[in-house]
Write a structure and sequence with these properties.
- With 112 residues, chain A is an all-beta fold.
- Chain A has no helices and 11 strands.
- In chain A, strands 2, 4, 5, 6, 9, 10 and 11 form a 7-stranded mixed β-sheet that branches.
- In chain A, strand 4 and strand 5 form a beta hairpin.
- Chain A is globular, with a radius of gyration of 13 Å.
- The mean pLDDT of chain A is 94.
- Chain B has 109 residues and is mainly beta.
- In chain B, the strands form 2 sheets. Chain B has a 5-stranded mixed β-sheet, with no helix packed on it. Chain B has a 4-stranded antiparallel β-sheet with strand order 2-7-6-5, with no helix packed on it.
- Classes of the chains: A mainly beta (112), B mainly beta (109).
- Chains A and B meet through strand 4, strand 5, strand 9 and strand 10 of A and strand 3 and strand 4 of B.
Chain lengths: 112, 109
């Protein structure tokens, strides 16, 4: 069964450093998403991406965040200058646009 | 996107059937109803999706009344491994998903 994969599974970084979280969506999906979940809180939408551009973003997704689909398979989330409050699980999801979204296992980001 | 309301927590025992009801009074005509399961430190896992009446797959059933203002996820014969948070969401297609707090199901031996 096809699935969304994410790397790394865990990332520890110092405040102010840049991080790149990587995702490989399901191969025939066209819509891509990033969500995050701070420990003990709800899953929050960050950004959606379609046809090589952002289709929607939340208030959380400020100028420190960017997304890219550098090739035909990867979908990345970059945080330019991490803050302590960026510590969370980051989930990538993909969908065909007709049904539901399928989530990856997540990357646990810890900012020290 | 329609807001959903579901119980904060539920308890059950192994082998029992669990029904989790979600209300979504403001569901739009083109909205689907989707349920996800989430274990600690894992991504939400798709369980089932429906538009109206009843949908069944290998893990669950979803009952949707004619007015579609609520839905019930039914888990037959739960086991300890079904202990998780269950989310009811409405929307569909390519739209973002808005998660609530979900229902924390605890299955006891």
């Amino acid at each position: 069964e096809p699935e969304v994969t994410q790397t790394p599974s865990h990332q520890v970084t110092q405040m102010g450093q840049e991080v790149i979280l990587r995702c490989v969506p399901i191969s025939n999906h066209l819509y891509f998403y990033w969500y995050r979940q701070i420990l003990g809180q709800k899953v929050e939408f960050l950004v959606s991406f379609y046809n090589n551009e952002i289709s929607e973003k939340s208030e959380i997704f400020d100028d420190q965040f960017s997304v890219e689909r550098p090739d035909g398979s990867n979908f990345t989330l970059k945080i330019r200058s991490t803050k302590l409050e960026d510590s969370a699980m980051y989930f990538c999801a993909s969908g065909s646009g007709r049904e539901t979204q399928y989530f990856g296992p997540g990357t646990r980001l810890l900012v020290l | 996107l329609a807001k959903t309301t579901q119980p904060i927590s539920m308890d059950s025992y192994e082998g029992q059937e669990v029904n989790i009801t979600c209300s979504h009074n403001n569901i739009a005509t083109n909205d689907y109803i989707t349920w996800y399961q989430q274990f600690p430190s894992q991504g939400p896992r798709f369980i089932i999706q429906g538009y109206k009446t009843k949908v069944t797959n290998e893990v669950a059933s979803l009952f949707i009344p004619a007015d579609r203002k609520s839905s019930t996820l039914s888990l037959p014969r739960v086991s300890l491994s079904d202990t998780a948070v269950y989310y009811c969401l409405v929307g569909g297609g390519y739209n973002k998903l808005i998660f609530g707090a979900g229902t924390r199901l605890a299955v006891h031996p």
